[in-house]
Amino acid sequence: MNTEHHPFEPSGVAIKASPKKAVLVYAADSYVGFCQILYEYLILSGATVSILEVSDGQSSTGLTDRQREKWGITIPPGAITPLRSDKLVETISALSADYLFLGVSGRAVFRICKALHQQKKIRKIPLISTGFPGLQFRLMMEGVILRCFVDRLLFTDPTLLRKSKNLLSFVPFRTAKCILFGSPRLRVTRVYEMGRDRPYVVFFDQNVVPQGYDARLSLAGSILALADEFPNKTFLIVGRTISGELSYHSLEGDVSIEALLAGRTRENVSSFSGNWTDIYADIHLCFSVSSTAILEAAALGIPSYSILVEGDVDTRFSAQAFFRNLGLQRTQAELAREIAEPSPGVSTSAANKHMAPFNGASLPLWFAPAEMERLPEAPIVVRNLLFRLSKLGDWMLSKIR
Prior knowledge:
This protein is an alpha/beta fold. The chain has 14 helices and 13 strands. A 7-stranded parallel beta sheet has the order 3-2-1-4-5-6-7, with helices on both faces. β8 (about 200-205), α7 and β9 (about 235-240) form a beta-alpha-beta unit. The two termini are about 35 Å apart. The relative contact order is 0.15.
């Protein structure tokens, strides 16, 4: 990931005393950006860092060269140890780290915390976990409760941070300190100016949104129609992952937008497999169905929208309803008008409420001694009860949204 200067200099972060040994765990490409920043910080402080990559059922393990470029990963491949999930707790216990970072799903965080608690190690190893790399607002309560019994809970979304703090204030047990970390992609604050012509229109694909073949085929057709309407622009298709790459959103069958466009591609439509932030200054407009990248691009000042896909609103990982409520959803015809006359302020204003740039000043907070508040630690049976109540709360919210 390119930066104009060292990522910890802009916020005046001093490399202070840090843990002698840290373990970083990630289980999908969504989380590896967090590990990259942590790794840089820890190595500069002289710490020993062990990185565990959790992978089950993948046709190949390890980040591919394509993924490393996409996420800006400079961690040496030899520093990463592949591991099956059923070996994770055993390995963590054996490493006896000073700090543990969990870049895994909420359910995995919940399970690991319970296992370490049973081993009487939950308070000996301060735990750090991410909030939500994506936009699973339908699972907000469940996601927070699954992750909240750690020492630090990191967020990229200021609004979700505030809501999570409010929710956790009602939990009468010791829970996480919520920290605004920001997006690992947005390392340097940039100012987007509309004064010059920019050649690229970027589409962010998602493997499971939309999920149905017919919906994906229709979406591919919409992209081609837009490309025909604007032959002076180059449409870049940024894929999520390809077969065999580490991701929670594994591609099932040959239904990527890139594959569906094969053989039908116009001269001004091509695939892009690198880090799209490297070309941000040349991007005219971005769109997707519901990718988090919409908010990241908008936070950089790039006009960015969600294109309407019929019949996909109930897909688990879809955030169409979220973007519609933000006023950022557009039909194909409306998106064409935005390409013709971009309105950057509309999407940027919405993005600033839900996507923060990387906050280097938060790093020392990660490694400060864990606060031992007077609130008692929640027994495992209570944690299970709170989890079930959170699922009920999310179901009730889904009925009134």
